[in-house]
Design goal:
The chain is an alpha/beta fold and 422 residues long. 29% of the residues lie in helices and 26% in strands. The strands form 5 sheets. A 7-stranded antiparallel sheet has the order 8-9-10-14-13-12-11.
């Protein structure tokens, strides 16, 4: 499937997608540069990208694969790919696996998750199948019992194991508890989460001859984002040119950043998707360019969302939970604070109340109600908590003056990621 010219993609989206037609209504008819276009507002995008009366798609949903992407259980989000778009997606990503270290004949275990419309397992399996080198694919899945996964890895002498850091660490911990190692594994391909130093130490104990590497940077909603750059820094990637255009924008002004080592939020334009156009779409991450042209370093999640262990959370998820539970309107502001201790991520919901509103018993009841609402909306969080992947969600009460703000604009910072990244 050919990569589309940006001008053709813009014109197609304006003419066939009601959402983009409205977004670009005030632009001149010949607007054909990214700098001419507004950045997509994620909330508006997903409010328009619904199952019924969809306003984002450029054609009826007649031929496509539908996947679930991040969102609350009450308002699920779906991403659509035509047959040709999906083939292009996995072919290009599969080529990038060579940069991650895939070699001819490698036996690769896919431990990503399948089913319930999630894409990661099928995406990695198809990317391996479309990679330009022969490989042996072992579609085990992340939900398989460790008691059967480990014998399969051993019997097939798997050389590469692919999964989220949480899954890989769960496997490593089980191996260590058994007093075992898997010395045949050469590569640990991780994706979907950041990998931290304490996790690397755990993985090294179970896989003594393996190197942990990013298998690439992509998401089911934003599409292709970054091809891994070989080297010691797993956060380094380069754009999948010409299939996607990655921009880094100033988080306060929206200015396009071109100089190295200036952090900003990642915005992507996909040049091979027409059914569900992705044009200047916020990927939800922060990054910075390096001195090598086209190379960028991922710095963590932007305020659109955050990853806590295997769980994706968005600031609007927390706000919705507060609104549902706080019927008296006592909460004056909120922030998501992510920390890491004892080898696990934890989420603190920092909530501000008015001066004088500090009755401990009442606030404790409200905190429990808010946590219940958020757990109901994001059931993967309590599931991950019970599995020991993340710390329990906690509420921290504060005054509005205690909430962190942007030093330049004075605007409230919705998500604070205090985890050290490696």
């Amino acid at each position: 499937m050919p990569v589309h010219q940006l001008s053709d993609l813009i014109r197609h989206a304006r003419h066939h997608s009601p959402f983009y037609a409205e977004l670009y209504a005030d632009l001149p008819p010949d607007a054909d540069r990214l700098a001419d276009l507004p950045v997509v507002d994620q909330s508006a995008f997903w409010q328009a990208n619904t199952l019924q009366n969809n306003r984002v798609l450029t054609a009826p949903l007649a031929e496509a694969t539908v996947f679930k992407t991040g969102g609350t259980s009450g308002a699920p989000k779906f991403s659509c790919y035509t047959r040709d778009e999906w083939r292009e997606f996995v072919t290009v990503f599969g080529q990038g696996l060579l940069e991650a270290g895939l070699r001819p004949g490698h036996r690769v275990a896919d431990l990503f998750y399948a089913g319930e419309l999630y894409a990661s397992f099928l995406f990695i399996l198809d990317s391996l199948a479309h990679a330009p080198v022969d490989n042996v694919r072992l579609p085990i899945g992340g939900g398989a019992p460790l008691e059967s996964t480990i014998p399969t890895l051993h019997d097939f002498a798997a050389q590469v194991v692919a999964g989220t850091p949480t899954t890989l660490c769960r496997l490593a911990e089980h191996l260590i508890s058994m007093g075992r190692q898997l010395p045949d594994v050469e590569l640990l391909f991780f994706g979907g989460e950041a990998l931290f130093d304490d996790q690397r130490r755990l993985l090294a104990a179970a896989f003594p001859n393996a190197e942990a590497r990013s298998l690439g940077y992509a998401s089911v909603d934003a599409g292709l984002l970054g091809c891994p750059v070989p080297g010691p820094d797993a956060r380094l990637h380069r754009a999948f040119t010409p299939h996607s255009v990655v921009e880094i924008l100033d988080e306060t002004t929206g200015e396009v950043i071109t100089e190295p080592y200036r952090p900003g939020r990642v915005v992507v334009t996909s040049l091979f998707r027409r059914l569900m156009p992705i044009i200047r779409y916020p990927a939800g991450d922060r990054a910075e360019w390096t001195e090598t042209e086209g190379h960028f370093r991922i710095l963590g999640r932007a305020e659109e969302g955050v990853r806590v262990g295997p769980v994706s959370l968005y600031s609007q998820d927390a706000q919705a939970a507060v609104t549902a539970a706080d019927t008296r309107g006592r909460v004056m502001g909120s922030q998501l604070v992510v920390r890491r201790w004892d080898g696990r991520d934890g989420l603190i919901l920092r909530l501000a109340t008015a001066p004088g509103d500090d009755d401990p018993a009442e606030l404790e009841v409200l905190a429990k109600e808010i946590i219940t609402e958020l757990y109901t909306a994001r059931p993967l969080y309590p599931d991950s908590e019970h599995a020991g992947f993340v710390h329990p969600l906690t509420v921290e009460w504060a005054r509005h003056r205690d909430l962190a703000v942007n030093s330049r604009s004075g605007k409230l910072v919705r998500v604070i990621d205090e985890r050290p990244t490696a």
